[in-house]
Amino acid sequence: MDSRCSSSVDSTGVGSINNALLSARVDSYEAAEKKCISDVRRTFCLFVTFDLLFISLLWIIELNVKGSIEKQLEEEVLHYDYHTSSFDIFLLAVFRFAVLILAYAVCKLRHWWAIAITTAVSCAFLIAKVILSQLLSQGAFGYLLPIISFVLAWIETWLLDFKVLPQEAEDENRYQSIIDATAPLMCPGPLSDGQFYSPPESVADSDEDLDDKHDPEKGLIQQVT
For the chain, what are the domain ranges? Predict the structure, then answer.
């Protein structure tokens, strides 16, 4: 009897420890899910921000190299010319930043269609810009801005398609496997024989019973009470 009771207690203790560990893992995953975005998605959003800031910096340097920034801004923005201005490359970086941050940081999209749109638009525009414009005759920055913008767009696509989405899908699968493993442990298992025991039987003809038999008045009083 004692061995069965101890084995039942041991199994119950081990089961409760396993349940506690699995519950802790589930709670940690749910706490991570409650954060704004995952770590890999945050890295992707930081790179998208870097894309905008880097293109902006290169464009400002180009304006400064050509002459006064105020004068160059007036020529490239107010008197915009597709063939000579780099302002549209800066606007293209702003377009990528706005679409990707809205899709993958604000809306937390888990699909590749937004990055496919931005990359396709960026590639088509930059190829047409290089072919039709006169940027290549304006020195090093005429080459640098289109090439850097093209490369950054494809790096963003690689990050999302090979890092962000697979990592998040793997985390979801791991969480689902933990839930599937926790479900049967949370259900009450079959009761073992050691959980049931009978109280020890009273000794026949105990001293009290013998006294009652020898003293019928005492037995009568106990029955009345």
Answer: 38-175
